[in-house]
Amino acid sequence: MKNINSKLPEVSTTIFTVMSTLANTYGAINLSQGFPNFETDKGLIDLVTLAMKKGHNQYAPMPGLLSLREIIAQKTNTLYQSNYNPNTEVTITSGATQAIFTIISAFIRPNDEVIIFKPAYDSYEPSIELFGGTIVPIQLSMPDFTIDWQEVATKITSKTKMVIINSPHNPSGSILSKEDMLQLEKLLEGTDIILLSDEVYEHIIFDGLAHQSAAKFPGLAERSFITASFGKTFHTTGWKMGYCLAPRELMAEFRKVHQFNVFCSSHPMQYALAEYLKNADTYLSLPNFYQEKRDLFLSLVKDSRFSFTPASGTYFQLLKYSAITDEGDVAFAERLTKEHNIASIPVSVFNLNQQDDKVLRFCFAKTEDTLKRAAEVLCKI
Predict the structure, then answer these.
(1) DSSP summary character for residue 263
(2) What is the distance between the alpha carbons of residues 81 and 96, in angstroms, rounded to a whole number?
(3) What is the tally of structural domains in the chain?
(4) What DSSP string runs through 173-213?
(5) What is the CATH number of the domain that holds 325?
(6) What's the pTM?
(7) Residues 179-203: pLDDT tens digits?
(8) What percent of the chain is predicted at pLDDT more than 70?
(9) Does 169 lie in the same domain as 120?
(10) Last residue of a domain, one of 282, 316, 343
(11) Which residues constitute the domain of residue 372?
(12) Which residues in 126-164 are b (16+ Cβ under 10 Å) and which e?
């Protein structure tokens, strides 16, 4: 065909693919794309193998295996004092990104406005655009990436259909406080605005801080979709397994689209996860596990020319490089990969108007050896 009228004319290959490809080409240490380079628990892998051997290899139920939905509801209700019904308010998805896409496709119509906070995970905007929605961006500022709720109030109109939040936040590593959530709850009170709360790093939070899930706040929970990721929690990003929580009326609409999107997610993995989640330590131990990695990485680069504010959550750390060069972050990230063999993610690609704050995002979900080798490189720059 000579003439293709693209629905996403401005969208190209994601920065994650670009930087990982560059890392592979130059044999660089890859701290760009957010995936661990260590193995998941052998016990979990054995559970998947056992499920396959037992014959759980055909379609799972469309909303997910009930035993898995039940333990997710139990986990969530225990952690956040909520009351999710596993039959009608929990759905297993093929990763959190599929859940996010399904939520947006189920609710966003042409000219609906969606408020997002930038820097933002790069799947939000294209999904909104595909369904004719209008993006209303609010730029967060370094170094703390806090939200100005007065500004949010000015951006809410009669056309506002959805607000998307992400905490712990990718790429900044910041988190929303209880006070933030209470202010958001008050802002949305009395409206029909849907909240999409991207909580894929809910169990990766540091320094004794607590994750403030939308599930904890009744005025938010009643209007919220919460998305979560087993890939992020259990070091299995390649499995593409996640789940979604929402009140029954909202979830019914979600499932209408979900059944025609993927229908169901991996059956043997659901059996394995249902068994694995019975041990709460599998996710409650994650803050200490990843804080040790964060602290190691920061201790190794503290005498470098990079500066930083320690991440409060996620497994990403921003490093500011303005003391080194005034290059744009995309150009500097490319040069680091090609000349110094270390790959990172430039943050400007997630910002409003590609605002360049001279920061790069590094993933510290790596082995101790990888982090030491990476820090050695960074300290020489």
Answers:
(1) S
(2) 22
(3) 2
(4) -----HHHHHHHHHHHTTS--EEEEE-TTTT-B-TT-----
(5) 3.90.1150.10
(6) 0.96
(7) 999 999 999 999 999 999 999 999 9
(8) 100
(9) yes
(10) 282
(11) 15-40+284-379
(12) bbbbebebbbbbbebebeebebeeeebeeebeeebbbbb
